[in-house]
Amino acid sequence: MALNQEYVDYIVDQLSEFEGASSRKMFGGVGIFKDKIMFAMVTSENAFYFRVNNELIPKFEAEGMKPFDHAKKGKGMPYWSAPAHVIEDKQLMKQWAEDSYEAAILAKKK
User: Fold this and answer.
1) HSE on the CB side for 48, CA within 13 Å?
2) What is the pLDDT of residue 40?
3) pLDDT tier for residue 2 given thresholds of 50, 70 and 90
4) What angle do CA 73, 77, 79 make, to 5 degrees?
5) Is the pLDDT of residue 70 over 80?
6) What would the pLDDT profile of 32-51 be if each residue is shown by its tens digit?
7) What are the respective helix, strand and coil percentages of the chain, to the nearest 5?
8) Which domains occur in the chain, in start order?
9) Which segments within the chain are labelled E, that is strand?
């Protein structure tokens, strides 16, 4: 499946309340960054994922979300799918983006 630029544009627009978010094509998908730190991504299958850490995983599990699984590498990455109701609500996107950005910052410090 090819990356749908309209979907990427929609995701970036939904993140507009989270100031400084930008997108960059990479590895067939798109990374979502703030201050050069990737905190979310859109895959080439047009699925949106947030960066997580151990503290955020229960929040995603409670929503029935799943971790990203990179088929070629045979392992997951610290990104979990975003619930549709979050993607559709700019205020929720801002809150979840803030949490994921913080998780990305903490991971970078390690």
Assistant:
1) 23
2) 98
3) confident
4) 140
5) no
6) 999 999 999 999 899 999 99
7) 35, 30, 35
8) 5-109 (3.30.1460.30)
9) 22-26, 29-34, 37-42, 48-51, 67-70, 75-81
